[in-house]
Amino acid sequence: MAGSSFGTIFKITTWGESHGKAIGVVIDGCPAGLPLDESDISQYTDRRRPNGGSMSTKRIESDRVEILSGIFEGKTTGTPISLIIRNEDQRSKDYSQIADSYRPGHADYGFDAKYGFRDYRGGGRSSARETAARVAAGAIAQKLLKSMGIECSARLTAVGDIPASDPQAVEALVNRCREDQDSIGSTVECTVKGMPAGIGDPVFEKLDANLAKAMFSIGAVKGLDIGDGHLAATAKGSTNNDAFRMEDGKVSTATNHAGGILGGISNGSDIRLTVYFKPTPSIAAKQNTVNRFHEEIEMNIKGRHDPVIGARAAVVVECMTALVLVDALLLNMTSRLDRILDFYQH
Amino acid sequence: MAGSSFGTIFKITTWGESHGKAIGVVIDGCPAGLPLDESDISQYTDRRRPNGGSMSTKRIESDRVEILSGIFEGKTTGTPISLIIRNEDQRSKDYSQIADSYRPGHADYGFDAKYGFRDYRGGGRSSARETAARVAAGAIAQKLLKSMGIECSARLTAVGDIPASDPQAVEALVNRCREDQDSIGSTVECTVKGMPAGIGDPVFEKLDANLAKAMFSIGAVKGLDIGDGHLAATAKGSTNNDAFRMEDGKVSTATNHAGGILGGISNGSDIRLTVYFKPTPSIAAKQNTVNRFHEEIEMNIKGRHDPVIGARAAVVVECMTALVLVDALLLNMTSRLDRILDFYQH
Amino acid sequence: MAGSSFGTIFKITTWGESHGKAIGVVIDGCPAGLPLDESDISQYTDRRRPNGGSMSTKRIESDRVEILSGIFEGKTTGTPISLIIRNEDQRSKDYSQIADSYRPGHADYGFDAKYGFRDYRGGGRSSARETAARVAAGAIAQKLLKSMGIECSARLTAVGDIPASDPQAVEALVNRCREDQDSIGSTVECTVKGMPAGIGDPVFEKLDANLAKAMFSIGAVKGLDIGDGHLAATAKGSTNNDAFRMEDGKVSTATNHAGGILGGISNGSDIRLTVYFKPTPSIAAKQNTVNRFHEEIEMNIKGRHDPVIGARAAVVVECMTALVLVDALLLNMTSRLDRILDFYQH
Amino acid sequence: MAGSSFGTIFKITTWGESHGKAIGVVIDGCPAGLPLDESDISQYTDRRRPNGGSMSTKRIESDRVEILSGIFEGKTTGTPISLIIRNEDQRSKDYSQIADSYRPGHADYGFDAKYGFRDYRGGGRSSARETAARVAAGAIAQKLLKSMGIECSARLTAVGDIPASDPQAVEALVNRCREDQDSIGSTVECTVKGMPAGIGDPVFEKLDANLAKAMFSIGAVKGLDIGDGHLAATAKGSTNNDAFRMEDGKVSTATNHAGGILGGISNGSDIRLTVYFKPTPSIAAKQNTVNRFHEEIEMNIKGRHDPVIGARAAVVVECMTALVLVDALLLNMTSRLDRILDFYQH
């Protein structure tokens, strides 16, 4: 089916494979009048690029984003914004092993079962490279949020069970994984400040439901907490409830176990979510698997892969969160008749 | 916005408030030819009803479901199936306290911020009663899955940190909560057996992304794991990857850390998910909060509430899972041209 | 598929068959704060009811609409409004002829080809009775439009080639059709006054495109003109173009060949559309057809049918137009960043 | 809003302005396994290009389509197909007149009212150039239809009131229009052969409703007939009904006034539709209008415009029809449980 679009009013459609000519995204429904140029976007896509650090692949991609439409005289026009990122490093490789084999922890087998065959080069459509397009679109959502006084930011908070606040221990752990031809899981947290209360819907379009869909649409995400998340399952109501109080003339909460969302609707507190990434499935160590001829085989996955997904994925979490929030804010404008009549000045 | 519909092909739309005349659901896109009567549905809605047990409210609701359309000569016709459940216990009560106050842990404040006012009786649209309509619709999805040989079942697995397999300790904990005018969190697990490989989509419509949206659309859900979930964030690739192997002539996996979904597509292993519920926010103990006049107040929430949400919510988890799976299975029929041509017999 | 919903923000879902227990509609996305009671709705559904006049069936339906949800203290709450109309006249009849035969001009054969069987009683889901649910929903859209100063009205303008302004000639024609056991086509025009300029979208969601979908979703509609419509195909640009001019300080047009819409966007002139209905396909005269056993047969269609569809369908045209306009007005609120920032008061 | 997508399963998203860097389209939901290369597409886009004939602009565009994604080893992979057409003729021009003025018959005024400003170069997003992207997408839909034995073709049938079968009279009329600095309306007919019965839905997603939306989404379309269309409004039931009969063992109709669709569902007869285009609004003769400063002005529209829209638009009608049909065929696969169970081989 048509599964490459996300959002209702502010809607993005990504396209492209890891080793095709290019990847890209069409952003439809962006309000007219937002100043935008390519540097607004590259400051986000640069955060996703391999940086040569210990947690990153050694491959170099420039990921230059070109704006093809939707901007006139430096501002969005309200029409679709088409962004393209050329794939540079398309040298022909020997893909024979990966072409026929199902890498453990990857979608290869599912792809063949679904489509009958697949573009196996570099993971094809399921490559993490697809997320560069999301980040490019999310950069625009971020700029819109900022214009409304809303700050959305995500960061790596743990590698395995080591807090990211201890960079030396993290580096040691990562190096050990590399030496062992292994990889390690990671944790990313996202916080949103300045979100107004009243955003989201009470039933299926709960704000947290859409955030959850956004997070699990990122490859390798296996767990999500909103606020205290899974820890709430062992808490008592008397401590888990956040008491409302008045602060500077505004309704506020004394604690924030809920992560800023109650019954699917924002309550004005910071939105907090924690995203759990599995370890990179591409590891150099030998693994047992099967090939498409249904023979059991052993395989070693070659190539340079990030041993930790969360490092580069934090900006993807941030951008997907921003996309959900912008859409919810736009949708929310129609919730009250009095405000609609004001808008149309009757 | 229009947030009361769920699904693309097999689409449900719920309606109704806790203390209005009725609640209900319209199921649109159900294939024609499924034998269906009210008993198919009541076996699921009965599991959600208060049962008078220790974890349940003492209120009695019969929750009889009436089929109003879409069935002819005992079978679905392919047209919308409208189901209605009358609200029986609508005696007039004194709602003055709840009408003006924002209960901690509830959507009351968000509702007022969003809509300007709210139907405060029994939680209105945000009442867990709305899930009875989902369960009624999910019962049909379950019958479709069964006809395809797929079994989807969920159960309460923990109350607080006590495993549900120790019912005596659970009962003791729950009784202690009641005595303390408190409530406790809970955990529900759902398992799907017999799901074919190749179902789901690689990008935004990942099978796990849609399951995540479904789960977080259930009130009080704060965390979700697919497969090993948040534990994968501290695992290594060499142990977290599930090796493919051949079993009875079919591709299978030696372990199932992934929970049956890789890259958003089912791989034929059991789908496993764990849902974390916060403790019931309505507790009898005194709480601090504010009212709609923005005055700080104390409130005691009267009424008989379940101290543990997961007990009655397990069937909601199961039914929402079934709804996601049916929709994905139907959508998947168009993935390959050869199968489409077979279908249309050319 | 799920084909019983219409609209994006202001979304309706109809359900029910002609001879089932009831028909109904769920309106989701109606803004909160609109005063609404059943009399607001009945003034529209009454216009669609058989009135015993010469152009109408002799059957009597009361079509009483009951509001089941979404209203609190006399106002819409922003949650789904569920409306139900019980089917009263469900006496058991001998449907054996219609059950097995494909009535010319009806969907019977298509239904069997699509679903394998059908609820044949009174046309089942394809009965014009379904439009009573649309009218009930459209009544709410009309009330919203009126609150914004927009008037939308439709009326029968011709029966066959006789203008409705000549009621005597119309009556004579209709009586002749009845005597001949025949039926006759008709024309309905709809006019919208007070629509602001700038509503609609430039590409697929053109205002006229959505109006066209709405009109052709009404049974028996075979033609549509926007403004001059098909006559524009023989006109010259110099006469067909509507010159812009200033009038009372506002941009206006000297003529209105375009019918108020240019490039899919309203221009502030009256919206004008003309809808062409085929003659009622159910006629008493003998017709050749086939049955579901693929035998050629002759059939006479019994029962009392309107000989002219447009008389009772005018209010359906009006209500479907209103639904399109309300949705477009709500969607349009997000088109400009400056107005969004005003709305959120930053 | 997000108005640049069309379709549910087979979904296209177009982007780009007349004088931006490029235009393009993303086709999402195309089944895997369709052989496709750029020549499959260019045979359709070539029909839309200016050909230098009497009815066409003199401007030359090569409109070369480049496939950027979604194809591997010569076949569609099931992932998004991204197509791009570079805009070649982007020389800087003096747009000062058009920038400030509202051309009669164009969307200029509506754009400013909606978005606050617009990309005025060559009509921006509202340029007919956008339809090149639709045609590129429609070429793929056409190839799918052909693989299923369905033929969909459209052609210009009249210029003004001259039938296209009289090319000499047409040429004389067109030349006269040019000399008069004027333009003329036109008529396009589309016929679909080989469509199976049972495709489409009974209520809002009627096959003709979606065709109507598709047709009115094409700029300059002002009228549409399905089958006999507006003429049915003056016909009698006894002659307008198409009698069913058996032909070569299949259900067929003796006549085809309905144009192959009854109650929103195909009946196996040829689908016939007639589309009415207004005359080109850009004419060289002097016109009265207003500018964005709300001053009444006179303007002459410079540049070389087609005096007849239908000539180049016939392929757009054909491609939009094909897009609707493919989507309806894919959606229809889920209508019957027995066929679903066959598909999944239980």
Task: List the topology elements.
The structure is a homotetramer of 346-residue chains.
Chain A: E1 5-6, E2 11-16, E3 22-28, H1 38-48, E4 65-67, E5 71-72, E6 75-76, E7 81-86, H2 96-100, H3 108-115, H4 130-147, E8 151-159, E9 162-163, H5 167-179, E10 186-193, H6 207-216, E11 221-226, H7 237-240, E12 244-247, E13 250-253, E14 261-262, E15 265-266, E16 271-277, E17 287-290, E18 296-299, H8 310-331, H9 337-343
Antiparallel strand pairs in A: 1-2, 2-3, 3-7, 4-7, 5-6, 8-9, 8-10, 10-16, 11-16, 12-13, 14-15, 17-18
Helix pairs in contact in A: 1-4, 1-8, 4-8, 6-8
Major β-sheet profile of chain A: 5 strands, antiparallel
User: Which strand-content bin applies to the residues of chain A?
Assistant: 15-25%
Domains counted in the coordinates of chain A: how many? 1
Structural class based on helices, strands and sheet pairing of chain A:
alpha+beta
- Tally the helices of chain A: what do you get? 9
Features:
alpha+beta, homotetramer, 23% strand
How do you describe this structure in short?
With 346 residues, chain A is of the alpha+beta class.
Account of the protein in words:
- 4 copies of one chain form a homotetramer.
- Chain A is of the alpha+beta class.
- Chain A has one domain: Chorismate synthase, AroC fold (4-Layer Sandwich), CATH 3.60.150.
- Chain A is 28% helix and 23% strand.
- The first copy, chain A, has 9 helices and 18 strands.
- Chain A has helices at residues 38-48, 96-100, 108-115, 130-147, 167-179, 207-216, 237-240, 310-331, 337-343, and strands spanning 5-6, 11-16, 22-28, 65-67, 71-72, 75-76, 81-86, 151-159, 162-163, 186-193, 221-226, 244-247, 250-253, 261-262, 265-266, 271-277, 287-290, 296-299.
- In chain A, the strands form 6 sheets. In chain A, strands 1-2-3-7-4 form a 5-stranded antiparallel sheet, covered by helices on one side.
- In chain A, helix 1 (38-48) crosses helix 4 (130-147), helix 1 packs across helix 8 (310-331) and helix 4 (130-147) packs across helix 8 (310-331).
- Chain A starts with a strand and ends with a helix.
- In chain A, 66% of the residues are buried.
- Chains in contact: A-B, A-C, A-D, B-C, B-D, C-D.
